[in-house]
């Protein structure tokens, strides 16, 4: 009967010694040989009538090794389950001498493995964490900008023959030229030198706009980008033209800017018809009602961004202030091993370089596993189906209200049969629930902030973590 003993060899690092007796593997070896003799198709013998001795001679060595190793694996799994050892990954075999396995001289064998034990730990106390819930102040300017965007988006474009105002929309063709106005055949970074674009007259520099007023279709101006555009617009144009932003000489490139179409965007009027078009069945009749609705939507957007910030703060609190010890020696050995077919064994240098990120990811996995287990966080099949439906509504740009049609349910059921989709959606919803739980644990200080300050803060944070 097989026996397994455990010996500590480091922090959360154990050596398992498996002693296998002959009786643990010989019966399965003899059975395997008989099965081979029944299935073997060897010339000169009827199928199923091949002598066991011949089978042993032909296949015995590999079958013997397989059965011994299979028996070791079976005993290991039984031991880990019975003793409820919570380990990382799989046991790593210490050096095995396969030459000791001799079917002609069956013996008791000893195999050794090392395992990394998962640690016990206590989660950081989110209630004691210093967190902030930001409240972005919605301004009249923000409301006006959004209303103008909606008016433009739903407005009508009227064709014109002549450029008259700074609000006119120009379709233009940028063509790179030299100092004499002759077309250049190769542009900066070998990008194409011709590019269509659409922009308002007011996107040009204020003192340059006079060169455009009065122009008609097919008229053109020649200028370098520095002269034609202020910094913000110039950066956008440079990106669109495919010019290297770091190349100072390229920024001075000269372009022929030819007008191919002139239009004037007639904004939608702020009236009940427009309000109903945007928000059917919501009883928005006056401009004041409309502004209140826009105000609420903008506030909801920033409140959601602030919620994401709370989640981010909770993440860092859990990751940075939950103390977890790891069996680093075992994990580094495990990292060196190829994890997929065709993968190379990593060098010690590669392991040391990758180890900090690996430990961070492993730490977060242990933390989330503990949160899920201790708070019974589950994702039900119906939640997966509803998520698939909401995604479909989003793709199609339709509301989810009202009675559902059968094809929507059919789509959801189809997605439930896509294993990859189900796994990804399950993980996404589970992560969402983990952060929703975290949000109930923190006790944030409320702080008012402008949209610009909030955006700069988030950008600085993201830059710091990349």
Structure write-up:
The protein is of the alpha+beta class and 466 residues long. The chain folds into three domains: 3-117, Trigger factor ribosome-binding domain (Alpha-Beta Plaits, 2-Layer Sandwich); 156-266, Roll (Chitinase A, domain 3), CATH 3.10.50.30; 285-464, Trigger factor, domain 2. It is built from 14 helices and eleven strands. The strands form three sheets. Strands 6, 7, 8, 9 and 10 form a five-stranded antiparallel sheet that branches. It has a four-stranded antiparallel sheet with strand order 1-2-4-3, with helices on both faces. It has a two-stranded parallel sheet with strand order 5-11. β1 and β2 form a beta hairpin. The longest helix has 35 residues, at 287-321. The protein starts with a strand and ends with a helix.
Explain the layout of strands and helices.
Elements: E1 3-10, E2 13-20, H1 22-39, H2 52-82, E3 87-93, E4 109-117, E5 132-136, H3 140-153, E6 156-160, E7 168-177, E8 194-200, E9 220-224, H4 225-228, H5 231-241, H6 248-251, E10 254-266, H7 272-278, H8 287-321, H9 328-336, H10 348-374, H11 381-396, H12 406-416, H13 419-441, E11 445-449, H14 451-464
Parallel strand pairs: 5-11
Antiparallel strand pairs: 1-2, 2-4, 3-4, 6-10, 7-8, 7-10, 9-10
Helix pairs in contact: 1-2, 3-8, 8-13, 11-12
């Amino acid at each position: 009967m097989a026996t397994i003993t455990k010996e500590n060899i480091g922090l959360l690092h154990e050596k398992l010694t498996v002693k296998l007796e002959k009786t643990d593997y010989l019966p399965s070896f003899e059975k395997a040989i008989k099965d081979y003799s029944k299935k073997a198709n060897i010339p000169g013998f009827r199928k199923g009538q091949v002598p066991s001795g011949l089978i042993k001679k032909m296949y015995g060595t590999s079958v013997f090794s397989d059965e011994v190793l299979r028996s070791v694996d079976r005993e290991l799994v039984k031991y880990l389950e019975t003793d409820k050892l919570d380990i990382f990954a799989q046991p790593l075999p210490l050096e095995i001498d396969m030459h000791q396995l001799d079917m002609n001289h069956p013996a008791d064998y000893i195999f050794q493995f090392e395992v990394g034990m998962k640690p016990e730990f206590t989660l950081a106390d989110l209630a004691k964490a210093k967190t902030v819930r930001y409240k972005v102040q919605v301004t009249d300017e923000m409301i006006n900008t959004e209303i103008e965007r909606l008016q433009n988006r739903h407005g009508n474009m009227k064709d014109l023959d002549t450029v008259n105002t700074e609000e006119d929309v120009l379709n233009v063709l940028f063509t790179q030229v030299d100092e004499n106005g002759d077309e250049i055949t190769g542009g900066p970074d070998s990008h194409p030198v011709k590019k269509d674009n659409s922009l308002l007259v007011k996107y040009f520099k204020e003192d340059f706009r006079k060169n455009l007023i009065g122009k008609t279709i097919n008229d053109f101006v020649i200028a370098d980008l520095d002269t034609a555009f202020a910094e913000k617009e110039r950066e956008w144009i440079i990106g669109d033209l495919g010019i290297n932003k770091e190349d100072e000489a390229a920024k001075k490139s000269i372009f022929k800017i030819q007008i191919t179409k002139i239009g004037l965007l007639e904004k939608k009027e702020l009236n009940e018809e427009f309000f109903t078009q945007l928000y059917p069945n919501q009883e928005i009749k006056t401009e004041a009602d409309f502004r209140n609705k826009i105000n609420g939507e903008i506030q909801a957007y920033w409140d959601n961004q602030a919620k994401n910030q709370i989640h981010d703060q909770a993440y860092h609190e859990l990751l940075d202030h939950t103390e977890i010890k790891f069996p680093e020696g075992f994990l580094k050995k495990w990292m060196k091993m190829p994890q997929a077919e065709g993968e190379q064994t990593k060098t010690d240098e590669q392991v040391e370089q990758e180890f900090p990120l690996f430990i961070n990811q492993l730490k977060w996995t242990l933390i989330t596993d503990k949160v899920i287990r201790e708070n019974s966080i589950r994702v039900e099949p119906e939640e997966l189906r509803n998520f698939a439906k909401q995604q479909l509504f989003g793709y199609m740009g339709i509301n989810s209200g009202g009675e559902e049609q059968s094809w929507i349910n059919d789509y959801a059921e189809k997605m439930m049969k896509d294993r990859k989709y189900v796994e990804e959606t399950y993980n996404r919803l589970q992560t969402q629930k983990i952060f929703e739980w975290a949000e109930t644990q923190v006790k944030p200080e409320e702080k008012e902030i402008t949209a610009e300050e909030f955006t700069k803060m988030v950008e600085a944070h993201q830059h710091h973590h990349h």
